[in-house]
Structures are given as C-alpha cells and as structure tokens.
Amino acid sequence: MKRVIISGIGIDIPEAVITNEQLVESFNAWADRENARRAAVGEPLLQKSDTAFIEHASGVKTRHMLFPDGVLDPDRMTPRIPPRADDELSVMAEFGVAAARRALDDAGLGAGDVDMVICAASHHQRPYPAIAIEIQNALGMTGSAFDMGLGCSSAAAGLHVAYNLVRTGAQKRVLVVTPEIITGHLNFRDRQTHFIFGDAASAVILEPIADGETRPGRFEIVDTRSWTQFSNNIRTNFGFLLRAGQEDTSVVFMEGNMIKQVGNKVFKEVTVAGHRFIVDFLADHGLTPEGVRRFWLHQANARMNAMILKLAFGREVDHDRAPMVLERLGNTAAAGSIVALKENHEDMEPGDYGLLCAFGAGYSIGSALLRMM
Ligand code: COA
Q1: Binding site membership of 269 for ligand 1 (Cβ less than 6 Å)
Q2: From 46, 191, 259, 305, mutation site for ligand 1 pocket: most ligand atoms within 8 A of C-beta
Q3: 56 and 106, same domain (yes or no)
Q4: Which domain holds residue 124?
Q5: How do residues 74-84 score in pLDDT, each as one tens digit?
Q6: What pTM was computed for the model?
Q7: Is the CB of 300 under 6 A from ligand 1?
Q8: Which residues 6+ apart lie within 8 Å of 362 measured at CB?
Q9: Domain shared by 164 and 300, yes or no
Q10: Which of 144, 174, 209 represents a domain boundary (last residue)?
Q11: Final residue of a domain: which of 209, 240, 271?
Q12: Whole-angstrom distance, CA of residue 327 vs CA of residue 336
C-alpha cells in the first residue's frame, strides 16, 4: 500500500452575506401576510422566527449565498438563479471549478496531473451527465470522474474512497470537489430550517508519496472511516418520481419536498453516535482525543460540536482545539469541515494529529485521521 497525502486544498466562499436579522425580517413579513390569509379562512397561524433563538440554538450569525437575489423577497423567498443553456458551464460545476483551481494552485499541480475527479456533495444539480465529468472537462483533465452523495458526510466519504483508490495504486491523483449550493434547496418559509444553511465549495487533492519522503506543511492521511445508520430525521423527498406522483403533471411541487429535519432528535442521536465514533476511531490508532491537536468537525451546530467534544474529552474544549466557521458561514453541508480544515491548520507542528469528522443525513459519519508532516 502507498502512503497518501493531501497535497492541496481549495475553498470558494461566495461574497454575499445575509444576516440573521435580514432573514428573520423577511420570514416574519411573509408570515404576517400568510397569517392574515389563514385567519380569514380559520387555519392555524404560523409562529414568527426570532434572531435570538437562532443564535442561541445554532450558533449561526451570518451565511454566504451564491445567489442572494430573491431570498429576502417575501414574494419569492428562493434564490434567483438564471437558467443556463446546456452548452454553458452549469452553476454547480462552475462553483466546483473555482474551489478546484485553488486546490490545484495550492498543490502546485496542473490539470494533467489529476486522473480522477469525485464530485461529493449533498445536492447535485442533475443526475447526468455527472457534475464531476463537467468539472473534469472544464479543468481540462482526463481519466475518470463520478458523482457521489452522502448528505453532509459527502466530502468525508469522498476522501474515504479517494484515499483507498490512491493507496492501492488504482488512481494516481484524485480531486474530491464539494460545491454546496444548499440555499437552492432550502425552504426559506420553514421556520425550523430557514436559518441553518449557507453556500460554500471545497476541493481536496490526494496523491501518494514514497516511503521516507516528507512534504513539510502537508498532511499524511493515517486512515479514513465511514459509518451509516438509517434515519428519516433529515430528509429531502425531492426527486424524479415527484411528477409521477401528482395528478397535475405540468408542474413539480417543491413545497413540502425540500430539506426537512427533526433538529432536536438529530442533535441528540448524532451527538451520541458522533462522540462514540471519534473515540473508537482514535482508539483503533492508539490515540485518545487528548492526543489530537485539532478537530475539524461538521459545522451544523455550535452547541452540538461542544457536546460531542465534551463527551469525547470528558471536559470542555476550546475553539483552538476545534475551530468553528459556522458562526460566519452557517451550515455549508459537506463543505463545512473542509473549510474549517483549510482555514485552521497552518500553525500545526510536524507530528501533530488532526481529525476531520463530518456527520449528517443518513445518518452518516465520515472521518479522516491526519498527521502533519
Ligand atoms: N425562531 C424561533 N423559534 C423557533 C425557530 C425559529 N426560527 N425554529 C424553531 N423554533 C422553536 C420550535 O418551534 C420549538 O418551539 P416549542 O418548544 O414551542 O415547540 C423551540 O423553538 C425549540 O425547537 P427545537 O427544534 O427543539 O430547537 P433546538 O434547540 O433543537 O434547535 C436546531 C434547533 C435545528 C438549531 C438544532 O436542533 C440543530 O442544529 N440540530 C442538529 C442539526 C444537524 O446537526 N443536522 C445535521 C447536519 S445537516
């Protein structure tokens, strides 16, 4: 088996920022109007959203959006993403390419150096042609490419696959790219979820190194692991069978078929599963949480990460040990832990261990144990 390193990481964060205050104002303006209609016909009224609740419950203060136009308009509450012709680069591929180019630059590589692209994301713009192949083509790469998805664990699962493909020599260099345009699938009229997500793209390049070789400032991958257990507590029902389930087939009804979650159940169940996963995975490598310099956890909820770490360590852990990008970016789905890794590793010393661990729909957990060279 070959040794494998992460030779490059790239991220792309959209410029536009939307605050909690802006989101709540637009939700409540819509809710007022909707409640006037409901009151007139005797339907139960909606409750208002609240900035203080959002900050306390989730830790999110702002999120970045690729297409903010339309989101805050109470008449629309959906990003306005102009359609593109089939021969134009698709929006998702474009976002992935931006992060991938940065990963290539970081690694000092050209397009010809990578022979596989995996587009691992929680939502794909279409089933085929695979977004990964479009990214491969846009970057001028050859070889093979495919899409994969495992909710918010997609990028970690992509690393698990890529690590084993490079380790066994099946592929020379693999690009795992995660463009998350999650605001396009979010129901901004759902009080339970409208504040959670933001957009971000990440990209990671894996390649082998020779025995005895070292690349200062880069991570060697010690091991990767993936775990799943079925749950309906985070679910989207959006898919190609929707139209066939309707009497009126002229339109596809999105309302009710977008992301929904039973957040408090997810919180409890994933906290338990997550901390056990971390402790067991580390123990299998002769490590305890105290022996790991940094944790780049999934960025879904600040209190949840604090709880997972408290259970794993048996004590409180600070943000130097487990950085959070959630407050600024919201939950960027599978890109979140990679963004945390990219922004928080340059101070690490040779020999330091780091653990990337993502969790989410499925349920699913994916992790990579890294050691700084
Ligand atoms: N504004 C004001 N109140 C709100 C609200 C909002 N936007 N959204 C929900 N509430 C209300 C609820 O209706 C509930 O009211 P009730 O007690 O009268 O029924 C109350 O706040 C508590 O709701 P709950 O869902 O129990 O809150 P919570 O503390 O669990 O926080 C989440 C909600 C979503 C922030 C939190 O559960 C979470 O982040 N869970 C983990 C999600 C996750 O990890 N997902 C996986 C990755 S995608």
Answers
A1: no
A2: 191
A3: yes
A4: 3-209
A5: 999 999 999 99
A6: 0.96
A7: yes
A8: 150, 151, 153, 228, 229, 230, 231, 234
A9: no
A10: 209
A11: 209
A12: 11
